[in-house]
Amino acid sequence: MNENISTNINEIRKNIETSIKKSNQKVSDVTLIGVTKTIDIARIETMINSNVYSLGENKVQELLEKYDTLSSKHEINWNFIGHLQTNKVKYIIDKVDLIQSVESVKLAQEIDKRAKAIGKIQKILVEVNIANEDSKFGIDPKDVTKFIEDLQKFNNIVIKGLMTVAPIAENPRNNEKYFGKMYELFLDIQKEKGHNRDIEILSMGMSSDYEVAIEQGSNMVRVGSDIFGARNS
Ligand SMILES: *Cc1c(COP(=O)(O)O)cnc(C)c1O
């Protein structure tokens, strides 16, 4: 890991291209989300200058602190990737392009309500707890189809796909089976029709395992420490 942000990004882009080839046509293009939690504005701007315009934040307060400064100068695509409390949806609804971490009907309902109030159709992903870990938020894989049906009643959200945070693994190859399962779920829900869904995003893979995730069909990776170095928090 280099200290140089733009060098790191070039390296990641090369790795992404290699992994796309290994995906056997599952993936043609991958969106790189730069995960900017705990990272200061100056370093984030170095990343933006390397043409990474999609940012991922996991805390409402932190996103709000950075939003004005960055969005006044750059065309940013804001992704919310952390656990979102329903009472905080109102603070970010006019700011986020994609809420990746929807894991309850109650949260979807609040997003729908707040989006409606400002005349927006909010893009969301459904977070899946693919390895059924107690420590993680997300829908049980076997309940995903039903969950998406339950969201049919909301007209001001559009479901764009699925997101997962895979288990912490010594060897990223250990997560291959989970990423493979996610890809199957993704294909399943793509087949079913619904008025508020347009399934095209499969968000999986972080610094430790994004290459394996892409090989298995991920088309959106969320990378923090491989861009900025280890976070000191
Ligand atoms: C922090 C975080 C990431 C990035 O993790 P790295 O290991 O630093 O790449 C990705 N996704 C989510 C949901 C995160 O909270």
- Biggest β-sheet strands, sense, barrel: 8 strands, parallel
Distance between the termini: 18 Å
| Secondary-structure element pattern, one letter each | HEHEHEHEHEHEHEHEH
Give the overall form: globular
Numbering strands along the chain, what is their spatial order in the largest sheet?
A: 7-6-5-4-3-2-1-8
Bound molecules: pyridoxal-5'-phosphate
State the share of residues found in helices, binned by percent.
Answer: 25-40%
Q: What fraction strand?
A: 15-25%
Number of strands: 8
Q: What Rg do the Cα atoms give?
A: 17 Å
Query: What is the tally of helical segments?
Result: 9
Mean pLDDT: 96
Structural features:
9 helices; binds pyridoxal-5'-phosphate; 8-stranded parallel β-sheet; alpha/beta; 8 strands; 233 residues
Helix/strand layout:
Blueprint: H1 5-22, E1 31-35, H2 41-49, E2 54-57, H3 60-71, E3 77-80, H4 89-92, E4 98-102, H5 105-117, E5 122-128, H6 144-150, E6 157-164, H7 176-191, E7 197-203, H8 210-215, E8 220-223, H9 225-228
Parallel strand pairs: 1-2, 1-8, 2-3, 3-4, 4-5, 5-6, 6-7
The structure holds pyridoxal-5'-phosphate (PLP).
Residues 35, 37, 58, 81-82, 165, 206-208, 222-226 line the site of pyridoxal-5'-phosphate.
